[in-house]
Structure of Biotin transport system ATP-binding protein:
Amino acid sequence: MVFWRKGVADGANSSALLCDPGARPYATFEEVGMTIGGHQILDNISLSLEEHRIGVIGLNGSGKSSFVRLLNGLRSPSRGTLKLFGQIASDVLKELPRHVGFVFQNPDHQAIFPTVEEEIAFGLTQLGADKRESRDQARRFLDTHGCLHLAGKPIAELSEGQKQLVCILAVLVMKPSLLVLDEPLTSLDALASRRIRHMLLSLPQKIVMVSHHLDHLESFDRILWLEDGTLRMDGTPSQVLPAYQADIDRKFEAVQEAEAF
Ligand SMILES: Nc1ncnc2c1ncn2[C@@H]1O[C@H](COP(=O)(O)OP(=O)(O)OP(=O)(O)O)[C@@H](O)[C@H]1O
């Protein structure tokens, strides 16, 4: 499923679209913070995003999912200024789903239609295609990606890897300029993970991907390391990944030492 807010801009009124999908940077955070229920989740994030491949890392609860949810309007800042595709994010919430495809860790949180074809077709109807046209387009799209054999299959009967692939295709069919992936490969076996990663890296779309697998991010252009809701480090994989790994090693040793006493 693709997340649409009620009244999303459709094909008929596309002249009213405000976002520039080619904007560089496509996202600008100025002292952005987020508080939910009195709990500070993100604080004082200032950065611009324009690289083709950006990885987001950090320990559990560091704010990665909250951060990437800001990019498609699933979450909103409580403080600071967030601009997406050249516009203040809160001014373009309805338009964001056409530019930002969001893939969740668990396909069961995303797929809502009974069959693969319906899941893929839904996004096309949201873009203005009629039902029949969207079904035809969905089948052609599945064919292009070597998945036509899955078209009529119930999503519930697919393997985890097939489900995740369908979720990614359901987002891609709408040709977003940015793909945001929140740990999309976690439940996949090594082969399925590698195949989907290979497919993702061959896409023309810009990608922001959360991952706990540091080796999956080695070829990326930029890594953001979040810690306790703040940006701890921002740089190339060769700068950030070893520093993050060393920090984990230090924390592990500290816990071991504390437990020894
Ligand atoms: N709706 C919410 N209400 C209250 N607290 C929340 C909410 N969503 C997230 N949090 C808290 O915000 C913090 C960051 O959560 P988030 O899911 O962004 O972290 P994460 O880095 O993605 O974690 P993980 O690696 O475990 O997925 C956590 O302490 C979490 O409990």
In short: The pocket of adenosine-5'-triphosphate is lined by residues 36-37, 39, 41, 58, 60-66 (CB under 6 Å). The longest helix spans residues 237-260. The longest strand covers residues 39-49. Confidence is low (pLDDT under 50) at residues 1-13.
